[in-house]
Amino acid sequence: xxxxxxxxxxxxxxxxxxxxxxxxxxxxxxxxxxxxxxxxxxxxxxxxxxxxxxxxxxxxxxxxxxxxxxxxxxxxxxxxxxxxxxxxxxxxxxxxxxxxxxxxxxxxxxxxxxxxxxxxxxxxxxxxxxxxxxxxxxxxxxxxxxxxxxxxxxxxxxxxxxxxxxxxxxxxxxxxxxxxxxxxxxxxxxxxxxxxxxxxxxxxxxxxxxxxxxxxxxxxxxxxxxxxxxxxxxxxxxxxxxxxxxxxxxxxxxxxxxxxxxxxxxxxxxxxxxxxxxxxxxxxxxxxxxxxxxxxxxxxxxxxxxxxxxxxxxxxxxxxxxxxxxxxxxxxxxxxxxxxxxxxxxxxxxxxxxxxxxxxxxxxxxxxxxxxxxxxxxxxxxxxxxxxxxxxxxxxxxxxxxxxxxxxxxxxxxxxxxxxxxxxxxxxxxxxxxxxxxxxxxxxxxxxxxxxxxxxxxxxxxxxxxxxxxxxxxxxxxxxxxxxxxxxxxxxxxxxxxxxxxxxxxxxxxxxxxxxxxxxxxxxxxxx
Length: 528
What we know:
It is a single chain. This protein is an alpha+beta fold. It has a domain at 407-527: Immunoglobulin-like, CATH 2.60.40. 56% of the residues lie in helices and 9% in strands. Strands 1, 2, 3, 6 and 7 form a five-stranded antiparallel beta sheet that branches. A hairpin with a 5-residue loop joins strand 8 and strand 9 (512-516). Mean pLDDT is 86; it is low at 367-372.
């Protein structure tokens, strides 16, 4: 009976993996990040600068130079063959991660590994790794094996150092090793990191100087950090609309508190003989603390959800199930139509950020400062009060309208973007745009995507200025009017949602000619 259950679970994993790979290959933009790796390394082989490469979709190479050495062999294969191999390696990495996590969940139970692999494969982070051809899953695997103590003791820490040389966020594991008094592991990780960086400096001296002396700090190269895909604390603060001057201080304070809480609890878990839980907890801290945590980085939160489901106690199991739901589906996209206020939608759209933060603070239900007896009971009562206060705060925030500046994805397009049919879709050419426009000052169409809405239209000759308000209050966004074709002016912009949006057209005298709010909400609702 047990063997049959294991076979059924592995069959479910195989089916999920096969369908996932098939769906990825059907997408016209599949393996777009792998295409960036391939193009950037091809340029590097041809003697062109690594960090000057820009793919057709605008994506640059963003990893440290050592990552280029690791990826150097990819250009030995045709890109189509490389894509198939990469997808198979991603599936293999899922299984490799599932082995230690499954053993932590249910020691000695083969079904736990298969169940872990299946849940991982269903999660949004793994699906994102498959879709984009990302290497984030390999970074997680390396850090997990070292952090959980799976690698042989004499080599423990080396994999973390290598992972950090490919992507910097695993450096937090070095701090964890120090906090947990794993000093030799910390030393090996540091030496491995420095050795990898030095090797890259010898082989790629120009790229090393470019990255460490400038490219590393240019986060704008990575993309729009306020977009919903960035589920880090930094991304959430950008979406809240925190003032730019206060943002670094607020972000540093929150990240510092989260990391201290996570590291102290991770040290306690290590002492208790639970290094797997400790490693996943530190991994969640990297997701919350990093300035950029795209969906494919968030595998740690999926692992945390599974460990909570496998823990004792109803509260932990419910919390784990809720976290897994948030990591499998996009709550903002699924529940957006039923959220009556922007604050509710904001909480749904940032559920993954809040989940990672909760794991860091709660530490799988333990307390970093509590020991035994009366202190533990007193700490438990304290945390209960903290939980009630936090719940009340979130509930209050949920019914508040967001400021106009908190629009996470607003962008107005320019003349350089007119050729892109994804941005300018209502008309092409002078005659077509003239026919599309009518008696109204503004005639527009909308296109709804999972995390944004695009508005494209034509304005009449009497319109001198166009403004968009994403929510009540706050400064409006000016939408450029583009003379793309003779005799007509067009515009295009994107926003997070149109439920509370308002488009206002002004004449040359500064007076409003027309306001479009119900029209935007109706168009948004009809697409939903």
